Amino acid sequence: MLRQCAKYTLGQVVRHKKHPFRGVIFDVDPEFNNSEEWYDNIPEASRPRRDQPFYHLLAENDESYYVAYVSEQNLLEDTTGKPVEHPDLNAMFGSFDGQGKYPLQFDFN
Predict the structure, then answer these.
(1) Which one of 50, 52, 54, 91 has the largest count of C-beta atoms within 10 Å of its C-beta?
(2) Which residue ranges of the chain lie beneath pLDDT 70?
(3) The whole model's pTM is what?
(4) Cβ(60)–Cβ(23) under 8 Å?
């Protein structure tokens, strides 16, 4: 099985190649690590390879905020320079840097 390093980093703003949403990466799996039911619900012609990084996103579209699980092959760097408005961002990240990233926020108390 092919293993590769993740192309994107925690706190980075990305967008989906095919669907109209963007989000901030808060976790990365080195390869597919979700349920078979989730994977089987993707149309077979559109199923991503399992042997690539998958990203957990605090995602948003024009209608809602949610958590998304997306393969690397379906992501692009977001170049809009706009912040993401997901309500859970403040629990994990500091302020948007204006250049496509949110710094990780550590609270050890």
Answers:
(1) 54
(2) 1-4, 107-109
(3) 0.91
(4) yes
